[in-house]
Amino acid sequence: MKILIVDDDRAIAESLAEALAGRGVECTTVNDGRRALEQLASGHFDIALLDLVMPEKNGIEVLAEAKQFGCAAEFVVITGFGSIETAIEAMKQGASDYLTKPVNLEELRLIVRRVAENSGIKKENARLRKLVLPEEPLRGMIGVSPKIQKIRETILQIAPRRVTVLIEGESGTGKEIVADGIARLSGRQDKPFLRKNCGAISQGILESELFGHEKGSFTGAVAQKKGIFEAAHGGTLFLDEIGEMPVESQVRLLRVLETGEFTRVGGVTPITADVRIIAATNKDLKQQIDQGLFREDLYYRLNVVKITLPPLRERREDIPFLAQHFLNVLNAENKTEFRAFDPDVLALLTVRNWPGNIRELRNTIERILLFAQNEIIRFADLPDDLTQEEICKGAADEYGTMAEIEKRIIERTLRQTENNARKTSRILNIPLRTLYRKLKNYNLN
Ligand SMILES: Nc1ncnc2c1ncn2[C@@H]1O[C@H](COP(=O)(O)OP(=O)(O)OP(=O)(O)O)[C@@H](O)[C@H]1O
Ligand SMILES: [Mg+2]
Known about the structure:
Elements: E1 2-6, H1 10-20, E2 26-30, H2 33-41, E3 47-51, H3 59-68, E4 74-79, H4 84-92, E5 97-100, H5 105-132, H6 146-158, E6 165-168, H7 175-184, E7 193-197, H8 203-211, E8 212-213, E9 225-226, H9 228-231, E10 236-240, H10 247-259, E11 261-262, E12 271-272, E13 276-281, H11 285-290, H12 296-302, E14 305-308, H13 319-334, E15 340-341, H14 343-351, H15 357-371, E16 376-377, H16 384-396, H17 402-416, H18 421-428, H19 432-441
Parallel strand pairs: 1-2, 1-3, 3-4, 4-5, 6-13, 6-14, 7-10, 10-13, 15-16
Antiparallel strand pairs: 8-9, 11-12
Bound molecules: adenosine-5'-triphosphate and magnesium ion.
């Protein structure tokens, strides 16, 4: 912790420094207001101890000026005995606390410790708020896991640069949401943000759509047409499924990225477009390169910044937050008023493997809400296939004789369905009659 001590009486300044020094505290002393402001402007200090009565610039003036330039240090002012009014004035100006002269050193240490703790709490609160409520344009990108936090940071950092970004990640991991966030933070947000899916489309059509064509350049080209590159001028172009782009088109794209110029299909005039490229793929491009399906030179040209979205199963801690988020979103869409998921339900959602990632989670929650009866969603309200999956998985960890395992599974299912026999029989896929017989055999009621 760094403390600045400001007192025109050198002896007092030194004695205060001496009293505070040690155990991680570093003190600097200055003896007039102007020097104090110079030091504070460096932004190094956590706390400033400020004598109010000084020749030239007095303490109140120093405090006011420091606050004006946004100094984040906490101020503790020192007033002469009997001049409490000036202390109050200083508190109004934003001082955190005050001491009276002659300074009691015990009291000094106590106040400094308290002020330091409070400022630590303030900083911690600001940090937590940032974590829970990410910066405005990234608000919709939910997640507290270190991986998603890192991705949000990367987006904030690279968005304003013109660099090409490659986004990798399995289907449904949020590649589009990332591309959208980058575009909105790019400084190009008022210019077009266009998206082109490069998969499942023939080379000819793709190139004509990307670069446009001249009249008569192929059968059906009845008029000149501008391509997406021209339309996106000044803005951002999101090339989705880049891994599926035909190899011949990859050559053309590479040339555009290198020269900033292209020609329309069937045209000769070079056209320049200022377009920021974001590409996404759910394929492993390295593997595509090995198989001759993706050009290595284009890969390196695109891969200036790479953002890899982890699958949901590698950031399970985000699942409860995402679940609540989708519950809120779906409430708004459907004018429903579900409040939350029971811990049992969140536990089930958290252990699933989610091969379809966040998209699958959203769809599943939509399905759960369709069947839900109460504002708190309970395990017993879940669709049978979801709960059945859970029971089967549970069974794999069971030990004992067949009869013991069966008894335990029936008991647990009854507990989870809140003793609803009909539902239990459905989940376990046995006739109700059989269930009753087993209940009797195992002495369950
Ligand atoms: N971090 C997140 N917070 C909230 N919602 C998210 C998050 N990431 C993704 N989603 C949502 O999940 C769904 C799938 O995301 P998105 O379409 O971006 O996936 P994708 O990686 O582009 O998938 P694909 O490869 O299949 O195109 C969308 O509804 C999106 O809004
Ligand atoms: Mg997508």
